[in-house]
């Protein structure tokens, strides 16, 4: 079964799971949509499996040690969806931690049910974490407690991604209505990892959402870095050496310029043959030698045989080679 296939809509989940239409571990085969083929190769899927399985193990250990209760997080699926498809499968309300995921452009989401969030807070306060939890937004104190836990969870996500890229996830906001979470446009592709999550007696399907195209680019870069052999490395170094050598023979247009001056438009319009236009260039000052409007040397005029020439001299102390406001 292709693990990147789009999950089908299942029966309504029990209230304790806090999800409608999410695929669970026991779901059967899923129809493949040939109108929107997956862009994830087998190597990409395998890399993501390693990343998210590492994350789920670390997540499990963190929840168990912090909440002091039996907790379990298991990877269920990795899907390529549009953001609209992802949001439409989430319960309302749900707990969505909106993330910045530098260096990836865009935003991500760490999501699980409100009941699970309340159970975590209950355990943090020394409670039993009963299965029946209120379905409401967290108070300021509850949010602060859960935020500390989530910051540590993001540390585990950073650790899991170390082999692919140096991800720096940071919580930028909390939303309870998925329709209000401004993470991406409806048609943008996202990468969604789904997890079976259990905290004490409360179970849910948690999700991790990341921008698809930037994540795919990071996977390609990591794959190329790992598969480059010694022979390919030597070939690249040789090609770079040849490019550097050939650049030394590329012809470059060079100009020698006097210092510039300023004039009013009416003076330029009235110029006639024989008029004299004074330049702001002292007769003792050297000329500027430029290429692509960048001054790289100074010179004084002269002759070489029957041709005009310049002699390169030291730059004057007050010269600014990066800002040549000069005219020919």
Automatic annotation (TrEMBL):
**Compartment(s):** Bacterial flagellum basal body; Cell membrane
Limits of the Flagellar motor switch protein FliN-like C-terminal domain = 245-314
Q: Which domain of life is it from?
A: Bacteria
**CDD domains in the record, alphabetically?**
FliM
Pfam families in the cross-refs: FliM, FliMN_C
Name the segments for region: Disordered. Answer: 1-31
Q: Does the keyword Cell membrane apply?
A: yes
* Membrane topology value: Peripheral membrane protein
| Cell membrane is among the record's keywords | yes
Q: Which coarse location class describes where this protein primarily resides?
A: other
Could you list this entry's UniProt keywords, alphabetically sorted: Bacterial flagellum, Cell membrane, Cell projection, Chemotaxis, Cilium, Flagellar rotation, Flagellum, Membrane
The record ties this protein, via PANTHER family, to:
FLAGELLAR MOTOR SWITCH PROTEIN FLIM (PTHR30034), YOP PROTEINS TRANSLOCATION PROTEIN Q (PTHR30034:SF6)
Question: To which protein family does this belong?
Answer: Belongs to the FliM family.
Question: What's the protein here called?
Answer: Flagellar motor switch protein FliM
């Amino acid at each position: 079964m292709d693990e990147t296939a789009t999950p089908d809509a299942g029966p309504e989940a029990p209230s304790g799971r806090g999800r409608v239409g999410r695929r669970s571990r026991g779901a059967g085969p899923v129809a493949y949509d040939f109108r929107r083929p997956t862009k994830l190769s087998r190597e990409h899927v395998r890399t993501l499996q390693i990343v998210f399985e590492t994350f789920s193990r670390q997540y499990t250990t963190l929840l168990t040690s912090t909440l002091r209760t039996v907790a379990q997080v298991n990877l269920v699926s990795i899907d390529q969806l549009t953001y609209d498809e992802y949001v439409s499968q989430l319960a309302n309300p749900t707990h969505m931690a909106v993330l910045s995921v530098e260096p990836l452009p865009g935003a991500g989401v760490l999501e699980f049910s409100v009941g699970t969030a309340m159970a975590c807070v209950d355990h943090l306060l020394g409670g039993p974490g009963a299965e029946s939890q209120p379905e409401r937004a967290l108070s300021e104190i509850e949010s602060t407690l859960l935020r500390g836990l989530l910051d540590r969870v993001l540390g585990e996500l950073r650790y899991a991604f170390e082999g692919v890229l140096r991800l720096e996830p940071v919580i930028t906001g909390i939303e309870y209505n998925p329709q209000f979470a401004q993470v991406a446009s409806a048609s943008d592709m996202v990468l969604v990892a789904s997890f079976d999550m259990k905290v004490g007696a409360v179970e849910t399907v948690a999700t991790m959402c990341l921008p698809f195209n930037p994540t795919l680019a990071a996977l390609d870069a990591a794959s190329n870095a790992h598969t480059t052999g010694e022979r390919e490395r030597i070939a690249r170094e040789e090609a770079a050496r040849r490019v550097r050598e050939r650049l030394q023979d590329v012809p470059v247009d060079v100009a020698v310029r006097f210092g510039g001056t300023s004039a009013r438009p009416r003076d330029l319009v009235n110029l006639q043959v024989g008029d004299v236009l004074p330049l702001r260039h002292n007769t003792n000052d050297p000329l500027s030698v430029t290429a692509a409007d960048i001054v790289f040397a100074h010179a004084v005029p002269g002759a070489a045989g029957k041709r005009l020439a310049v002699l390169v001299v030291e730059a004057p102390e007050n010269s600014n080679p990066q800002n040549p406001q000069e005219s020919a």
